[in-house]
Design a protein that fits this description.
Helices cover about 85% and strands about 0% of the residues. With about 180 residues, it is mostly helical. It contains 8 helices and no strands.
Length: about 180
C-alpha cells in the first residue's frame, strides 16, 4: 500500500520533529517526498516541504530551510485551496520567527490573515493573529503586537463559543431523544 507508506513516512517525520530527532525526521520526510514524486499527490507537497524546512532550520541550515519553505508556500498556492495556503503561510511565519526573520514572518502571516479573512477561515485567522503578535513582539513593535493579541483573543473566544454552542446543541438533541423514548 504505497499511499499508506507515504502517510507513514510523513507522520513519522512529524513525530521525529516533536522528539527533536532531526536526522530521522529529515530521512522520513525525504522518503515521503521521493514516494510522493511517484504518486504525485499535490496536496501533500506543502506538508512534506514544511517538515523538511523545519528540519533544516533546527539544524541551522538556514539557506536550505528557506528554500524548502519557499517550495512549501509555492506548492500550497498551486493547490488553490485557501485553507491550505493560509495554514502553510502560518507555519512558514512561525518557522521564520524561530530564526529571527521577523519582517518575513510578518509578511507571511499578514498574507495568511488576508486569505483567512477573505474566506472566513476563523481558525486560520486566529493562528495568523498569534503569529503576527509573536513576530511583532519579537521585533519590538509593541503597539502592533497588542493589536494582533487583541484580535487573537477575540477569535479564540469566538471559536470557543462556537464549540460550546455545538456541544449544547448536541446535548439538547440527546435530551430530546431521551424524552421521546420516555414517552413511548
Amino acid at each position: 500500500d504505497e499511499v499508506g507508506v507515504l502517510y507513514a513516512y510523513a507522520n513519522a517525520g512529524e513525530e521525529y520533529l516533536v522528539i527533536e530527532d532531526y536526522d530521522k525526521a529529515y530521512k522520513a520526510y525525504k522518503a515521503a517526498l521521493d514516494l510522493n514524486r511517484i504518486l504525485d499527490f499535490d496536496y501533500l507537497y506543502p506538508d512534506i516541504y514544511t517538515g523538511m524546512s523545519k528540519c533544516y532550520f533546527k539544524t541551522n541550515e538556514v539557506a536550505k530551510g528557506m528554500e524548502y519553505g519557499r517550495l512549501s508556500v509555492e506548492s500550497a498556492e498551486q493547490t488553490a485551496n485557501p485553507f491550505v495556503v493560509s495554514f502553510v503561510l502560518n507555519q512558514w511565519g512561525n518557522s521564520l520567527i524561530e530564526i529571527k526573520e521577523y519582517k518575513k514572518a510578518i509578511e507571511a502571516c499578514k498574507k495568511s490573515l488576508t486569505i483567512a479573512d477573505k474566506d472566513e477561515l476563523d481558525l486560520n485567522a486566529k493562528d495568523a493573529c498569534y503569529c503576527l503578535y509573536s513576530a511583532n513582539k519579537a521585533a519590538n513593535a509593541s503597539d502592533k503586537a497588542l493589536f494582533y493579541l487583541d484580535r487573537y483573543l477575540v477569535l479564540l473566544q469566538k471559536l470557543d463559543m462556537e464549540e460550546v454552542n455545538k456541544n449544547f446543541e448536541m446535548f439538547e438533541m440527546e435530551k430530546d431523544l431521551l424524552l421521546s423514548l420516555i414517552h413511548i
